[in-house]
Amino acid sequence: MEILGNLIKGAINLKDKLTPEVNPIEAQEQVLKHLLETAKDTQFGKAYKFKSLLESDTIAEAFAATIPYFDYNEISEQWWRKLHNGEENVTWPGTPSYYALSSGTTGNSSKRIPVTDAMVDAIRHAGIQQVTALNNFDLPADFFSKEVMMLGSSTKLAEKDNHLEGEISGISASNIPFWFKGYYKPGEDIAKIDDWETRVETIAKRAKSWDIGALSGIPSWIELMMKEVIKYHKVKNIHEVWPNLQVFTSGGVAFGPYEKSFNALLEKPITVIDTYLASEGFIAFQSRPETEAMQLVTNNGVYFEFVPFHPDYIKPDGSIVENAPSVTLKDVKLDQDYVLIISTVSGAWRYLIGDTIAFTDVERAEIKITGRTKFFLNTVGSQLSVNKLDDAIQFLEAEFSTTIPEYTLCAKRFNDGFYHTWYIGSNDLKADASVIASALDAFLKSTNKNYKVARGKALEGVKVTVISPDVFLNWSGANKKKGGQVKMERVMGEDKFKDWEDFVAP
């Protein structure tokens, strides 16, 4: 197999050298023109005069001035509902072959996001770009002959009318290239098992028959799977079952909060590569080991715009105001939080994906995810994004020599005012809750100016409750579905938080 690995690594190296370097700004200009040209005769394209936009000397500016912002509810109600009524050529030519079902991290009801054949191709091509980028990570040749465990949602898609429905990870896995199927685990039969526990149990039983070199999925569910494999085979760590495991491709959420608990399941360090695959498209991936940032996929079916993340532009429900200014890739600034806006080959137009990002390298178009527009904790002016909350959790892990893979919180109103009320998931955090709260409060005040100001006004303090990490997984299972793209809410509104506290209560 070493010969095969050398051949594959050599082919990847050759493809990397022969592939011309992408100019992100130029690539985005071409993507926008392609989107407008392809969709100009759709109902949406006619309504917003795409043909006229294509004749403009400044297409990007004309596009931004003509097309309003859409969140899911707005574009679904105004346009995508026509697809459900059997109409064609609505926001993209023809009708979508798939719908990605996504409740994301907010609410129980599933969104139904169109996924066209063009988007399936775009995701596949972006995946190939990511594989090619592995050449930058100096992995040994034998890695490229090992198998890859992709743990997402079930690939058993539901048939409805003339399309198939499922989560995007299931749709993507059901469309893997033929040449990859020999490397793909757990294999098509197991991947179709809909029940999460049954699928993981089956994986555990067969685990020793596979030579896994890489894992791919959301950290919390990958962790749970590894624990089940370790438990089933009565071993100390996952490398006793998969000794050649060398890479984890993480997606969906920031890996930082999971790092300590994840590494505790390993015998030796592995390479962690971040990926940003959303229900609406393949957004970005980490292309080099010198940074943890991810490179936007700028040449493959998704056009990006960026709205500065400013409180004046954000509505209470996380959507953005109509006149919020946007910039394109050529005008973004370093270390500025932006609301991510996308237009895609699935017929999403100036679509609010719900994430906030910041650029770490403008020339390379490299970003980090900084949070969710709905999870921006600003009830009393504290202005804390998810990445700042993650930093606080990593501080607690170091301060108390513990692991905290899960957490959630709310700016909750008590009789004497607001408190940031945290639930922290840990099995070995033994300190008194008041001591943890004091340390957390002190850290946030020392690292976040707006939080410190809020603590001198309407924000009275911090409350902490430590619970088992399993409670968070059980909450996800009870309210949505285990596995797949399901992610834990980091910040909740008071109504949702009441449901959470009722769930947690003994």
From TrEMBL:
An annotated GO cellular component: cytoplasm
Give the highest taxon in the source lineage.
Answer: Bacteria
What is the species listed in this Swiss-Prot or TrEMBL entry?
A: Bizionia saleffrena
Residue ranges of coiled coil? none
InterPro entries, A to Z: GH3 (IPR004993), GH3_C (IPR055378), GH3_M (IPR055377)
- What GO molecular function annotation could you give as one example from this UniProt entry? acid-amino acid ligase activity
Q: What is this protein called?
A: GH3 auxin-responsive promoter family protein
Query: Where would I find the GH3 C-terminal domain in this sequence?
Result: 389-493
Q: Which residues form the GH3 middle domain?
A: 297-362
